[in-house]
């Protein structure tokens, strides 16, 4: 089969093969890496022209997949960046970080493949967990995760030696029950990652996180995330 995106003079035109659909429409609140909130569910919807079951044949035998995707809302880049993990004050080379502000705005995420829905109006759909993607993110490729080749337990991790500490999340009685049961732990997991920019530390500031059809209001004080209200979005 001819490849219309074949590289010419080192340049390559990419076409989305799928789109990610999830509960987070904005960058604020996204997990900083995939897998940090394994309860977060979403699905990969194949793009027109790629809704062919034979393209996914055999993928059901794998528990995890790599998603190659695009930073669709970033249009600038810098040769050095300030990783949030280092407090936002230390500059490192862009290729030594996972900053979204890259010369080629491509991302790579490892997600759990929960199941494949083979029949549906959009063709086969991949239901996944633990993605760090916004709703509507273009997916450029899907590859199976192969532990014997992809896992390197003894690899060095530079400045990223482990996940950030998680915070205790406190929700007023009855607020969490406003959400469907299958989304509650995902929201708690997101909040426990401390969605605030690392340079902000005002314990009185109220933040708003858009999660599915709700606006989740919270503040952070004394190492705890204190939810103040969970309200339906006004445009729903």
Fold and architecture overview:
The protein is mainly beta and 236 residues long. It folds into 2 domains: 18-150, Elongation Factor Tu (Ef-tu), domain 3 (Beta Barrel), CATH 2.40.30; 168-232, RelE-like (YaeB-like fold, 2-Layer Sandwich), CATH 3.30.2310.20. The chain has 2 helices and 12 strands, in the order ββββββββαβαβββ. It has helices at residues 147-150, 181-192; strands at 18-21, 41-46, 64-70, 80-81, 92-93, 106-117, 125-129, 138-144, 168-170, 207-211, 214-221, 224-232. Strands 1-2-7-6-3-8 form a 6-stranded antiparallel beta barrel. A hairpin with a 2-residue loop joins β11 and β12 (224-232). The termini are far apart.
Entry summary:
The protein is mainly beta and 236 residues long. The chain is 7% helix and 30% strand. The strands form three sheets. It has a six-stranded antiparallel beta barrel. A four-stranded mixed beta sheet has the order 9-12-11-10.
Q: What tags apply to this protein structure?
A:
6-stranded antiparallel beta barrel; 12 strands; Elongation Factor Tu (Ef-tu), domain 3; YaeB-like fold; mainly beta; 2 helices; 236 residues; 7% helix; 4-stranded mixed beta sheet; 30% strand; single chain
Rg, rounded, reads: 19 Å
Overall number of domains: 2
| Strand residue content | 25-35%
Low-confidence stretches: none
Count of alpha/pi helices? 2
Output mean pLDDT: 91
Beta-strand segment tally: 12
Main sheet, how many strands, which sense, barrel? Answer: 6 strands, antiparallel, barrel
Name given to the CATH homologous superfamily of the largest domain: YaeB-like
Strand order of the largest sheet: 1-2-7-6-3-8
The protein's oligomeric status is single chain
Helical amount among residues, as a percent range?
Answer: under 10%
